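In full, the data.
>
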Amino acid sequence: MKAIIDAVCERLMDECKFLRQSTYDIGQLNEAWGESSRPPVAFPCALVSCEITRARELYPGVQECDADISVTYAEIVAQGEVTDPYERITKIYSALQSWYPVGDDGEPLCYPFDRARGRRINADRSGLYRYLITFRTAFEDRSAVT
């Protein structure tokens, strides 16, 4: 799972030159902040997370996992500024739709990504605009093999 998220972050930085940062989503945007403080990210950014939605044991120590890879795109919009983030959101979508990461051995780490949903996350008074895109994939998790 870590290798998949790392590859997604790298892909987004390579394909979406407008991004200043792409990293793991560890709740950086969840903290309250105001004019004197900012979340610990460089805007515009893409924060990536992975949720295993189903797991099936194939044999001891190996599971086939269905997963949702979520990308939260965030940017700061100045008060009164009119912005159209959908061109940037489309570039993120285009960078990941039908794409799949490969390992050091050249083998796919998972099945190709397929967008499952996208939605705006409510903006707040701080000027933070967020959009969540979720992609579906599946992979074999061998991390429990001893």
